[in-house]
Write a structure and sequence with these properties.
Blueprint: H1 24-27, H2 48-60, E1 69-75, H3 85-101, E2 105-112, E3 115-121, H4 128-145, E4 158-162, H5 167-175, H6 177-180, H7 186-196, H8 203-206
Antiparallel strand pairs: 1-3, 1-4, 2-3
Helix pairs in contact: 3-4
Length: 208
């Protein structure tokens, strides 16, 4: 009988063997393990059988798919006409960049001296309220840095969900904002958009 704690004479202590997990057939990438010579296709990742294995793997990965097309409209504070024409195109590009930075897909940004329209696909990970805040705060600072010292946006906004077939129509509407507002004020336009979307409102709290 071996004393308690004694090792079997045929068992030698040592580190457990390390067996690398080979993800290459699933991920489709060449993986190089230290000490192992690299070949042009070390694990046959481009063979038909490996392509089939990758397809089976990806078919098991759950997908979360969403498409939210949003028409967002808001004005400057008290509808002050302070978005100068010489700043307008740069501001629209800046706002489109903010949308892209936060995972949204900008379609069109436009407007006139006292308000904006933004047409975009909303990121799946953000709410409308979140993207409005992310758009308003830095763009207000940007406008001040460009010489509009008293610049501020209104607190509220209007956000209208659209179907994919409405995208081209609303994009044209935003492009034609300068012509459109020769005959309709932003306030009348905003009320009309609310009515068309079936939204109720209290006039006392609509403007700031």
């Amino acid at each position: 009988m071996r004393p308690e704690g004694a090792r079997h004479p045929l068992i030698r202590p040592g580190p457990a063997p390390q067996v690398p997990i080979n993800f290459a057939p699933l991920l489709g990438a060449h993986v190089h393990w230290p000490g192992r010579p690299q070949a042009e296709d070390p694990v046959g990742v481009h063979s038909p059988s490996m392509r089939l294995e990758r397809a089976r793997y990806h078919s098991l990965v759950p997908q979360s798919l969403a498409s939210f097309l949003v028409h967002l409209a808001f004005s400057t504070k008290n509808r002050a006409p302070i978005i100068r024409e010489d700043l307008r195109d740069d501001m629209h590009r800046y706002l489109a960049g903010i949308l892209s930075h936060h995972g949204c897909i900008p379609i069109r940004v436009g407007g006139v001296e006292d308000h904006l329209h933004l047409l975009f696909f909303l990121s799946r990970s953000l709410s409308v309220a979140q993207i409005v805040e992310k758009v308003k705060t830095p763009s207000s600072k940007w406008a001040k840095s460009r010489g509009v010292g008293a610049f501020a946006w209104q607190s509220g906004y209007g956000a209208f969900s659209l179907g994919p077939t409405e995208k081209d129509r609303v994009e044209r509407y935003i492009v034609n904002q300068p012509d459109h507002h020769r005959k309709e004020t932003f306030q009348d336009e905003f009320r009309r958009l609310l009515r068309e979307s079936g939204l109720d409102w209290d006039e006392k709290y609509l403007w700031d």
